[in-house]
Amino acid sequence: MPRYYEDKPEGGACAGVKEDLGACLLQSHCVLQEGKSPRQCLKEGNCRALKNSFFECKRSMLDARSRFRGRKGY
Description:
Radius of gyration: 14 Å
Distance between the termini: 13 Å
Strand content: under 5%
Keywords: Disulfide bond
Family: Belongs to the PET191 family.
Shape: elongated
Pfam families: Pet191_N
Organism: Myotis lucifugus
InterPro entries: Cyt_c_oxidase_assmbl_Pet191
């Protein structure tokens, strides 16, 4: 379950999304049942929505417009 801003972890702009992505991967069928590493499961396409959210968050940190306006969402 996404945690958004409740108990937001310290350590950067995208830390919440990163933590949710890690939790999603560790709880996925790929890791628990098949015994693969989270990195392999991420490459296979598990937790795709959180992966895209994390990518957009990281990209927004480089975008000059969003630096002044603030990140959207998360």
